[in-house]
């Protein structure tokens, strides 16, 4: 069996999609920063909101990394299972007496 046939197609993000994600993150972070800075409350409330936002951003990155790692682990397992199946099929001789 040809290795090109069993090679999985890996989806790739385009440069435009990556740029859109970066711009979206920058705009939303800027909007939150401006909103907190101009909020008509005491400084300690703004500081509390800023720390909460920082915690939200870091936990979001951590969650995204965990989801990505889990997905990559399942892909590796799938590739190993696929390789084992291909090996069994390649070694199988239907005309061999049992």
UniProtKB/TrEMBL annotation:
Signal peptide: none annotated. It comes from the Bacteria. GO terms for biological process: DNA damage response. Keywords: Membrane, Transmembrane, Transmembrane helix. InterPro entries: YiaA-like, YiaAB. GO terms for cellular component: plasma membrane. The chain crosses the membrane at residues 12-38, 44-64. Residues 17-69 form the YiaAB two helix domain. Pfam families: YiaAB. This is YiaAB two helix domain-containing protein. It comes from Thermocatellispora tengchongensis. The lineage of its organism: Bacteria, Bacillati, Actinomycetota, Actinomycetes, Streptosporangiales.
């Amino acid at each position: 069996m040809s290795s090109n046939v069993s090679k999985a197609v890996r989806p790739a993000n385009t440069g435009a999609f990556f740029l859109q994600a970066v711009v979206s993150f920058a705009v939303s972070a800027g909007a939150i920063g401006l909103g907190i800075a101009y909020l008509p409350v005491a400084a300690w409330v703004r500081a509390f909101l800023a720390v909460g936002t920082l915690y939200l951003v870091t936990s979001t990155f951590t969650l995204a990394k965990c989801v990505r790692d889990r997905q990559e682990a399942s892909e590796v397992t799938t590739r190993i299972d696929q390789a084992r199946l291909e090996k069994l099929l390649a070694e199988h001789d239907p005309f061999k007496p049992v």
